[in-house]
Amino acid sequence: MSHLDQTLFNALIRRGIDDRDLHRRALERVRDPALQILLFENLQTLDSLIADLQAQVRADGSDPAQRGTPTGSLRVLLADLSTRFSAHRDTAWVQCLARHECGLLHSFERRLQRAGHTEAGLGRQLDRLYGMHRDMHCLAGTTHG
Question: What's the pTM?
Answer without folding.
Answer: 0.85
